[in-house]
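Two records follow; treat each independently.
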Amino acid sequence: MDYRQEYDKWCNDPYFDDQTREELKAIAGDDKEIEDRFYRTLEFGTAGLRGVIGAGTNRMNIYTVRQATQGLANYILAQGGQEKGVAIAHDSRLMADEFTDAAALCLAANGIKTYVFKSLRPVPELSFAVRTLGCIAGIVITASHNPREYNGYKVYWEDGAQVTPPHDTGIMAEVAKVTSFDMVKTMEKEKAQAEGLYQIISDDVDESYFAELRNLSIHPEIIKKMAKDIKIVYTPLHGTGLGPVKRVLSDLGFENVYIEPQQAVAHRIRTRRIRMHGNWHLSLRRKRMRIWFWQPIRMPTVWVYTARIRKAASM
């Protein structure tokens, strides 16, 4: 089937939701855009999926996420790991909630229990949850450093790390076999919950994770003595670190922790990057723009940033 035939199928097949079909019909006269969306199926590589969000076989959407998840489910079933289940986390990117449920409900329809975080969580906590809950695999909905129009899907194995041989090639082979949406299973969320196949990860996992982070402190006696005199400026950059960083720093006794408020919002905020004096700066689309210079310092468990406020510029 060529890209035009595939496009017509997506436009007319009731399997696809109304919003998807309307999005595609709106580009009916743009052959270049149609070709880009349908000339191939979004590739599932060793790191999983990553692509621009939108309707089409070469885009990140609930249908391509389900298709990849069906391949993962087939591999898990072949390994006899369905009883162990799969943990799923996501960050603050667009469509994160929808892709999380698309993956979870596909797994559930295949008889594989899913454990889902109720809100965004950092990748290390997903790895921790996989091991703590005894899961066979984990999924993170994220596209790392890519622009805001992207999202992605990364697979982790029972050791909490991203999949490595032979599981990576095994999963890729199973995903490649899922050539039709007729082969993809899903189910209603309410039914999955009623059957115990869709479970929200409890706060106990968070508490255990925070405890492990506190245990990583090398000289707690020094922190106890000096914490009140140390000032820390932190920005999560709209990401997943806000909750864990605030909580653990507070638990350790740090009282003077300053959070950059505009970048503490986890909503899907439009940002852009600009180049100034050879250094990267982050700016927000506002009437007034505050520009910060970021100097990353690599620490054992988190990225810490020091910041210097530059003169505000008018937009």
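The next record belongs to a different protein.
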Amino acid sequence: MLQSTSWALAAALALALSPVCAKPPATPASAASASGMPALAPDESQLVEHGHYTNKSGAVVHSPAHAVTSQAPAGASAKCRDGSFSFSQHHSGTCSHHGGVASWL
């Protein structure tokens, strides 16, 4: 009986002292869109700017960026009036500070 009690006490102590497992923050490659589909992270080598922001759904999204070529980068959802490409997952606020949306992709 003493042996099983010691084991239970040791297990409870180990559980109490173990670090809490928290979900890691979303990254551009693992972020999910509002539809539940994984966001397609753009190839950073094809972009001039490399910023990110957290959208209203809590997903980390690439900020609007100019492409190295004239082609839309993978994952772009809109082309902004200043020539940059947006990776926004919501229409609201897309291309703000970039002249607004020139066209949806």
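Discussion point: The helical segments are 2-17. How would you locate this feature using only the token line?
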